[in-house]
Write a structure and sequence with these properties.
- This protein has three domains: 116 residues, 4-hydroxy-3-methylbut-2-enyl diphosphate reductase, catalytic domain (Cobalt-precorrin-4 Transmethylase, domain 1, 3-Layer(aba) Sandwich); 84 residues, Rossmann fold; 88 residues, 3-Layer(aba) Sandwich (Cobalt-precorrin-4 Transmethylase, domain 1), CATH 3.40.1010.20.
- Helix content is 37%, strand content 17%.
- The protein has ten helices and 13 strands.
- The strands form three sheets. It has a five-stranded parallel sheet, with helices on both faces. A four-stranded parallel sheet has the order 3-2-4-5, with helices on both faces. It has a four-stranded parallel sheet with strand order 7-6-8-9, sandwiched between helices.
- Helix 2 links the parallel strand 2 and strand 3.
- It is flat and about 60 Å long.
Length: 307
Amino acid sequence: MIIHLAREAGFCFGVERAIDMVQAARDRHPHRPIDILNEIVHNRHVIDDFARQDVQSVHSVEESRDGIFVISAHGVSPEIVKQANGRGLEVLDVTCPLVTKIHRTADRLVRRGYEVLLLGDEGHDEVEGVLGVAPEHIHRIRHPDEAATLPDWDQVALVSQTTQGMSEFDQMERALKQRFPHLEVHNTICHATEQRQEAIAELAALAEAVVVVGSANSANARRLRDIASEMGRPAWLIEDERGLDPAWVAGRAVVGVSAGASTPDKLIRGVLARLEEWGGTLTPLPGQDLGRIRPELALAGPSQQEC
């Protein structure tokens, strides 16, 4: 059995940056309370690792201990920041810069008189934060058929949750342009999301089955699984190697592995190791450098893979 790892898998820049910033705060202040609003990133292992260092997840400003209050990589509404400052908490903002860009874009559009439509998942932390920038003028939308139900606004713009699918964004844009011919479009899906979606499409074209490593509440990890499924491949989303079922790969000649943008490398290694125990051989794709995951499979010279 050949095992292929997607060319782009695991931590993106925004996630790695957020984790590094919180870890640095804990290292500087080993005894000070540090609380994160909701989840720093959507991965149970990352959350548990921080909890062991007494970096706790809370669900509101009121729940936070007096100390450092962390705004997660998904961002929050301006009202949350105001509440934290009002309590006198030290605010550590680790919002992904690309999420911050959406906040600024939406705010600028609203100030120009636009109603802003946000393609996003209901209840997602990032979506709630963007909606909070201007609740009366930013509206979540999820399905193209919702376009026909919208009011007759004069100026309308479209933005997106960073982890939405490119195909979903394109479909939404087409539907909205039929309703609003002068729609202003801002594709705010992040580059890392696009890369991972393209990589799993390549992987699914080669593999007979696909395993995605990531948490069930990770929007980007679920979307990777869905892309593989839509291409006709059996695909599963698992937290770590304990979620693997040998029946999934029995008799398969080629199995693909990918991982969400919030998935640590150690979890990817664990899944690959388990598949190798079952007789698989990790094999690079053409020109692929696997040195980050498996040093002995690194290409000679500079890495060809953007980490």
